[in-house]
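To whoever is covering the structure queue this week,

Two jobs came back overnight. Logging them here so there's a record in the thread.

Job A:
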Amino acid sequence: MKIKELSSEQLNAAASMLKAISHPMRLAILNFLDEGKELTVTEIRELLKIEQSTTSHHLGILKDRGVLLSRRKGKNTFYTLKHQSLNNIIECISHCTV
């Protein structure tokens, strides 16, 4: 599908997702969740080396904008990419920043 084929609602949703992703910590989160990985808040916090509240803030934004899915299991919340094709954004960015 090409951009000109997208409805205004689809374009707005895409712009919202891209705005959510456009932060270094959030890009890192997407990178950690590549290839269908599912991580807890604690695991993501440890990888980012930031406070739990900051991690939760970034995860909340990504989830609210439709980038991530979450599921609870006991006391843990697991996060995964809502659309595995979002990995393509990370791959594209890595090629463009060389």
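Job B:
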Amino acid sequence: MEGIIYLLKKTSKKNEIGDPINTVEETKRIAEIRSVGQKEANQAAARGLKLEFTAVIWKFEYNNEEVLRYKGKEYRIQRTYERDDEKIELTCGNLVNNEENIYGST
């Protein structure tokens, strides 16, 4: 299934008097959305993680972002896998343990 994801990257700049200004850059991408396999989900659960889905995009579109937004919800990118066909799989899970939403969406 095809879907729209937004890769989120936190940046910090300084204003004219040197105060840090934190912003979030978001990059829109078209991705193939896949479900997580049962074996992988069980292995992750044993480590306390809950995997939700895998988004597949072109490798050149990914810049080591840690969080993505899909259907209005933010997910932590738990694992990446570079494939031989110039694509990368981003396996995503919920922000865990009531982790503060550092990327600022609702």
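Note for Job B: Residues 6 and 69 are 5 Å apart (CA to CA).

Please reply-all if you pick these up so we don't duplicate work.
Q.
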